[in-house]
Structures
1.
Amino acid sequence: MGAETPLRPHHLRPAPGAHKSKVRKGRGEASKGKTAGRGTKGTKARNTVPAGFEGGQMPLIRRVPKLKGFKNPFRVEYQVVNVAKIAELFPEGGEVTPESLAEKGAVRAGRLVKVLGTGDISVTVQVKAHAFSGSAKEKITGAGGTAEEL
C-alpha cells in the first residue's frame, strides 16, 4: 500500500494470528439465529423476491412497449419523382428544379428530391435534383437532357 492510496474497507484484514470465526446466521436460536436479522414475517423475512417485483403492480419491464429494430438518426430521406412523372408534368421539356416540381405538386417544397428511373422519357429536360438513380440519369441523358446534382 503506497502513501498515495487512501485506506478503504476492503483493504482491512484481521490482525496477524487472530482466529475469530465467521458469523453463521440463521443456524438455531442463538445471537444471530431464528429470524437472522430479518425481523418478523413479511416478504423480506422469507426467501428471495424477484428483482423486478413491484408489490403486485404491473412491473416496468411489462409496462414498457417492446421496441423492435433501430431507427437511424442520420438517415437522409428524399422525395422521389420518377422520369415518367417528369415527362408527364413537363411535356414541352425545359428546366426541372425541386421548386418547379413543388409548384406542380409532385413533391413538397423545401425537401430533398431524388429522381428515379421508372417509366420512359422522350422530351429534352434539364433536371436539377439532390440525387439521381443510375437508370434515371441514363434515361434523361438518352433523351438529350442533362441531370445535374445540387
Note: The helical segments are 60-63, 83-89, 98-103, 134-142.
2.
Amino acid sequence: MPHMRPLDPAFPIDRQLAVEATNVVLVNLFTLDAADEDTFLRAWQDDAAIMKRQPGFISTQLHLALGDSPAYLNYAVWESTAAFRAAFINPEFRAKLSAYPASAVASPHLFRKVAVADICVA
C-alpha cells in the first residue's frame, strides 16, 4: 500500500470524503524510487481499471513529471464525492493497494472547479 501524505495536512482525504459535492476532481501526486516505476505503473493500471468500472467515474489521466525524478500525477473526474467515496472504500480497490511498491507515497486531494470570469467555467 502506498504511504499516504496529505497535500493539506489540516484537511486530509478522509475529511474531504465527508464533504458532499458534485463534479469533483481527484488530484493524486505519487512519488517513488526510480527502481520501482514498472511496479508502480502496473499497480496504478490495475487500480484504474477497478475505478473505471465504478458508478460515477468519468475519466482519469496519469501524468509523468519532467526530469529525472519519478513523480506521477493522477487526475480523475468523478460525478460526486459520494461516488468517489464508494469507490475509495470498495474492497476490491482496497485489496489492490498492497501491490504498490514500498517506496510509493500518495498525496490525494479532492477539488471542485471554480468559475473565473472570462477565463474558466465551474
Note: The mean pLDDT is 95.
